[in-house]
Write a structure and sequence with these properties.
The chain is α+β, with helices and mostly antiparallel strands. 28% of the residues lie in helices and 31% in strands. The chain folds into 2 domains: 117 residues, no CATH class; 122 residues, no CATH class. The strands form 6 sheets. Strands 5, 6, 9, 10, 14, 15, 16 and 17 form an 8-stranded antiparallel β-sheet that branches. Strands 11-12-13 form a 3-stranded antiparallel β-sheet, with no helix packed on it. The radius of gyration is 25 Å and the shape is elongated. The two termini are 22 Å apart.
Length: 251
């Protein structure tokens, strides 16, 4: 296989992955607290093992033995989504930088999705059944009136009942997604520091930060790029097949 074929194949594959990411973003446009995933392409030299392999399999002396190589990086965009008023006292939104802390069987995870509910034990949990953490552990709301102020202080029937554990990280660029709206920090362990410049808004939800028009434009661009690489692959295959057949007849 020529270097040009490798380059075209890798380009088509990366644009296919890009389409899948954009489709997932668009599918979650109405998911509270969802953060879109962005992609970026980087042109680099081909890996050493690939250069060695291509040195012996190029179709012609003009085919490069060390073609340029494409790499796609993904990153979660944590930009603020708009606030949507719901009036439900169990709905909480964060205005500013920070995350709610959620206890899962796999450890503490972080989210911006605040449509919480109560379980049978009156504990505040996510819709998936994971406990929402306060600074002293899980949060139990045994009363008729539940109030959260802007700093995350909780009161039940007018009595103090702890404080939400809200943290921020110096660098969230390498966070990994854990399910739809939960995230894992780069080191994979519990961490972060108390969020200082964040406001809790009760009775609100943070909407997805996916922009429909922008996603559609990017999907069209990715689809056209994919089709262009597919056309290049077909052309290379036809050229290769024609060269082999004609050389065979001459011999």
């Amino acid at each position: 296989m020529s270097g040009a074929m490798y380059l075209a194949s890798s380009g088509a594959m990366l644009n296919q992955l890009r389409l899948e990411i954009l489709s997932n973003n668009l599918a979650n446009i109405t998911t509270a607290g969802f953060k879109r995933q962005t992609t970026a392409f980087q042109i680099i030299d081909s890996p050493e093992d690939m250069r060695q392999a291509l040195a012996n399999v190029s179709l012609s002396p003009r085919s490069p033995s060390a073609p340029i190589w494409q790499r796609m990086e993904t990153r979660i965009d944590f930009s603020q989504g708009r606030m949507k008023k719901t009036g439900n006292p169990l709905d909480l939104a964060l205005n500013g930088k920070g995350f709610f802390c959620i206890q899962t069987p796999d450890g503490v995870r972080y989210t911006r999705k605040g449509n919480f509910i109560l379980n049978a034990e009156k504990e505040l949990i996510t819709s998936e059944g994971h406990a929402v953490l306060g600074e002293r552990g899980s949060i139990r709301i045994d009363g008729s009136h539940f109030h959260v102020d802007g700093e995350g202080n909780i009161a039940v029937d007018g009595e103090p009942n702890g404080k939400l554990r809200i943290v921020e990280f110096d660098d969230d660029r390498k966070f990994r997604r854990f399910g739809g709206t939960l995230f894992i920090p780069p080191n994979g362990v519990d961490g972060g520091k108390r969020a200082e410049e964040v406001q809790v808004k009760q009775g609100y939800l943070e909407s997805s930060n996916v922009e429909a028009v922008k996603m559609m434009v990017e999907m069209i661009d990715a689809l056209r790029s994919y089709e262009a690489y597919q056309k290049t692959i077909r052309t290379l295959q036809e050229t290769s097949s024609k060269g082999i057949n004609e050389l065979g007849r001459i011999g």
